[in-house]
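Open question from group meeting: does this chain pack into something compact, or does most of it stay loose? Before anyone orders reagents, we agreed to write out a predicted structure and look at it together. Recording both the input and the output here so the notebook holds the full record.
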Amino acid sequence: MLIDRVVLGKGTSNTGNGARKFFRHHETVSRITEVDHECIKRLYFVMVALTCGKQLNIATLQKFCQETAELFVQRYPWYRMPVKVHKLLVHSVQVTEYLPVPIGIMSEEALEAANKIYRRVRERHTTEKKTIQDLLCYMLAFSDPKLSTLKRPAKDSLDLPQEVLSLLVPQIPVDTEQMLPPNDVDLNIEVDVAYAVENFHD
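Structure tokens returned:
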């Protein structure tokens, strides 16, 4: 696992995937860095709970974050708590409480996932018109409701650690078959892509 290495054309090796791997193997990380294992593990649970996109139990999460912050201060009284850790443990609950949807849904993960589509489209064309036309077609296909029902199901919350599940509001099982549109509903939407491209700058 490469940490803080320069990657040609991509910045550094410090990525979200690297951070997830770092905290997922908290026992190994604690043994190597000699940082308290309980602190790393609890930080991992908080971050997973906040990013999983599920409804959080505010009271339970607040208590868990407070206990984690107190543990950090108790184990490392000589080291000032980093600002980002303070925001995570103290203010994340306050932000979550006032959001209309789970805080994990507000992340930029979906936006960043679309970057590979933009990059793929730009590599194939040289003219602006064809690039925009292909990009519109790609995004219309990816956002089509009917095609979305054919995608691989999202990762189930049962895969989350038990400690994280205790921070969430219990989920009521939903029959996904009932959520599908009736067969007689036509979800095909005809879009004049050429017109959209020509009037893109208007």
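Observations to bring back to the group:
Confidence is low (pLDDT under 50) at residues 185-191.
The radius of gyration is 22 Å.
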